[in-house]
Design goal:
This protein is α+β, with helices and mostly antiparallel strands. The chain has seven helices and ten strands.
Length: about 240
């Protein structure tokens, strides 16, 4: 289980990842549980289902590779041939700028306001070619799980030919993250969410298709929220 504490203005927020069940926490205005395993009813907590794709690392890397779709493996090999370099925990500032620009172009503010705090508690994977950052992915982990938290790339800022290269860099980056998690002895690689809505025009369907090429299994987790401060709850609901 991973705990991350944040402070916004005079409010204190506590975040837990990968817990079995939610529980009360002292000395905070609100507590949030993400990717919680069990579906329970706990007094005062709001619950929301959250679907994601999970890769079982206990099967070994050869089995993980074999389950990937052919186009995914080809993209990884292309990234290797092109000399794309994947690095850990470097280029934090560059990634922060890349992600904020990517979010702006996608019209999705997302994690932008929290990214600096999460960088302190996460593992950053970046993929570059000739010192140019193409893709970045921030992940969060505990002793058993690694989850893709947020990612950004230059695919919205480049021409069609380079978008193919960025796609290869993205696949190679995720493959290197999978290998990293396996070497550390983690048991699950979480691709960071899966859209289960019925709107066929929702752009998240395209993200689903990309993630599906890695061969993960659909699983339902649960997010729980409890507000201890009525003022914090009011402020959050407004903004």
């Amino acid at each position: 289980m991973k705990c991350i504490k944040e402070r916004k203005l005079f409010f204190k927020k506590t975040n837990y990842w990968f817990a079995d069940t939610p529980f009360d926490v002292e000395d905070c205005d609100a507590v949030f549980f993400y990717a919680t395993k069990k579906d329970v009813s706990t007094k005062g907590f709001y619950k929301k289902e959250s679907s994601t794709l999970i890769i079982d690392l206990t099967r070994g890397l050869d089995a993980v590779w074999a389950k990937m779709k052919r186009m995914c493996r080809q993209g990884i090999k292309k990234g290797q041939r092109e000399g794309i370099k994947v690095e850990l925990n470097r280029h934090h500032h560059e990634f922060s700028l890349l992600y904020k620009e990517f979010s702006k172009l996608k019209n999705f503010p997302g994690f932008s306001s929290h990214i600096e705090n999460y960088i302190k508690h996460s593992t950053l994977f970046t993929a570059s070619l000739d010192e140019e950052l193409l893709v970045g992915m921030l992940t969060i982990e505990d002793e058993r799980h690694l989850r893709c938290l947020i990612g950004g790339s230059k695919r919205l800022q480049v021409n069609k030919e380079k978008r193919i290269l960025v796609g290869a860099a993205n696949r190679l980056l995720i493959w290197e993250a999978i290998k990293y998690a396996h070497v550390k002895g983690l048991v699950e690689f979480d691709l960071g969410g899966y859209y289960t809505g019925k709107d066929q025009n929702d752009p998240r369907n395209g993200i689903n298709r990309f993630k599906e090429t890695f061969g993960g299994v659909l699983r339902t987790y649960y997010n729980y929220t409890k507000y201890y401060s009525p003022i914090y709850r009011l402020v959050k609901s407004v903004f």
